[in-house]
Amino acid sequence: MIRHSSPSSLLRRLARRFAGPLLTPFLSQQPAAQLLRTTARQQWKLLALNFGASLVEAFSEGATLGVIFLALELLSAPGGSAGLDLSRYPSIGVLGGLREVIVQAPRTPLFIGLLGLAVLLQALMSLAGYLNQLSVGYFAARCVVTVKTLIHQRILALTFACASRYRVGDLLNQATDGPDAINRYINSLSQLLLNGLLLFTYLAVLIALSPWLLLGAAGMALLITLMQQQLLPRIRDASRQLMASQVRLGSRITEDIQGLRLLHSMGQLEAADRTVRAEMQQLEVEQRRQSQLGAVIGPFSRFLPILAIAVIAALSLLAFQGRVTGVLPSLATFVVALQRLNMRLGIIAGVFTTLGNNTGAYERLNEILSPAGKELRRQGGVPFQELKHEIRFEGVSLRYAPELPPVLDQVSFRLPKGQTLALVGASGAGKSSIADLLVGLYAPSGGRIEIDGLDLARLDLASWQQRLGVVSQDTFLFNAALAENIAFGCSWATRADVQAAAAQAQAAGFIEALPEGYDTLVGERGYRLSGGQRQRISLARAILRNPELLILDEATSALDSQSERLVQQAIEQFERQRTVLVIAHRLSTIVNADQILVMEQGRVVEHGAHLELLGRQGNYRSLWQQQVKAVPATIGRTTT
Predict the structure, then answer these.
(1) Is the distance from CB of 146 to CB of 38 less than 8 angstroms?
(2) Residue 521 to residues 483, 484, 496, 507: CA-CA distances in angstroms?
């Protein structure tokens, strides 16, 4: 059964189809749309200036065409200015005496005056264009800055567990592509406003010249509209696929650069290059497909006016054949107006293509800004001041994902203030997971972590973390001076404080030997320093914080024997007045700990002091004997 649609319903469907890509990103309830609306309310003066400048541009263009038509008619009129038919210019009649001035003026001065007026109108149009671009540029700059800030805030607001599910390259792409998507969308809106007003101006000129010209222009616009109706969905789909490929490729290149040391050491440089080249080839295929789709509209839009000019020029003989004068001015003005109309239609078609291409980046921006499916860091809570009594784990369990097995299972222990607790066990036993829970990187899947009897989940997380000192195997240093890295998070620290902390961490010697001393730049992730030097900088950073809880996760693993002995002495001096959690593989570094927990498959299997555990004939004694046998010469020299 064939359904017949009324013209009004057809227009509504066309409006929804083509206004969708334009208005949906602005009117939806997505975070980016809300941001645009909020910024629009705050910057309404800029938007008013943009709209006013667009109106002035459209008026100036229409008036220029009218002046050009009048000048051409003046040249073609048999009797000069006296032969002009001013009845077709009602606006002149409004000015009263201007009609007589035009009729009585000599042809040459009047023609030159009209040309000067056309130039002034175009100058006004240029000034309005400048204000137009300036206002939209200012508005876009505010939106881009706001989006960049929001993306950065969103990434920092994610829990560590949630943020860890993203690849670094993905987050870098989000921070780059999101603001670009907003900028493209705002400029597209401005282009559509200006070119839409100019489009109506040219249509008004064409209607004034002849309804036949309107039919030609409408037919041309209809053909472009039908073509876009077929192409835009394909362009949007291609944009999503292209964006996905760009994200994968960006993530891969970022990881290859971050992992250069691993690629070199494992001979995987060629394999990494082959992988990237394969991704590049796929990206090239998708970019070519996108180019094929986007390249259709422009040439088609440029061809239609030529066809329309040829057809309507013939029709113009019928339209203007009854006139004694004005055929040449009408036809010339028509050609100018139609060419400019074609240019504006091409720009509008290009804007819709840009909006289609922008779909992928805009959707990814909404994805990162939307809280749906994300775990955000908890805010607020009881401010932490100091540790007064103890830290307690009560039946704590942890799963990194519901489908994964637990990494901690019913772990319970007490860590009184001022004591040192050591965690030992095989890799994967759950030692570092306990440290991560204490730092607040993850929340327990079960059980409670209490700080002086208060659930850690009720503490203000930032205030708790600011009173911790953490030294881990994977030491991160900023590409900044050594002094800045040591003083990170301690804005109050003086250079003397930094130097004292470095001396206590046995780092002052190698720092002062450097040509620039504490002002030495360490390079990206501290690559200019050795592993042992980076760990000593990390230890100095922790010491400077004067923490309530010091967490040492293999803090001496990258040191040689001499450096390890010096750093161990520094740690022992520092931890006498501190509560310390130590994770160690080398048991010789934790023999003086007040408590030692032996971990196995996420459970505490033994608990006691060093000598007590050696006497139990259990896991700890086995680990100790294995390490003694592995370094008999060292043990012998130590005992002698």
Answers:
(1) no
(2) 9, 9, 19, 15
| Residue of 63 and 236 predicted with greater confidence | 63
C-alpha dihedral over 86, 91, 94, 95, to 10 degrees?
A: -80
For residue 38, what are the CA distances in angstroms to 35, 41, 189, 242, 476?
Answer: 5, 5, 16, 30, 38
For the beta sheet containing 549-553, the strands, ordered from the edge strand earlier in sequence to the opposite edge, are 468-471, 549-553, 579-583, 420-425, 595-600, 603-608
Q: pLDDT tens for residues 232-285? A: 677 767 767 777 777 777 777 777 776 765 666 556 777 777 887 787 777 777
Q: Which amino acid is at 624?
A: W
HEC assignment per residue over 6-23: CHHHHHHHHHHHHHHHHH
**Domain range summary for the chain, segments of one domain joined by +:** 29-369
Return the beta strands (E) in 327-407 as ranges: 390-398
Q: What is residue 470's three-state secondary structure?
A: strand
- Distance separating alpha carbons of residues 522 and 246, to the nearest angstrom: 31
- Give the H or E element holding residue 544: helix 531-544
Tell me if the pTM is above 0.85.
no
Tracing tokens 């086995």 back to the chain, one arrives at 622
Phi, psi of 395 (to 5 degrees): 55, 40
CATH fold, domain 29-369, is ABC transporter transmembrane region fold (1.20.1560)
Kindly give the residue spans of alpha helices, DSSP state H, lying in 459-529.
Answer: 461-465, 482-486, 495-504, 508-513
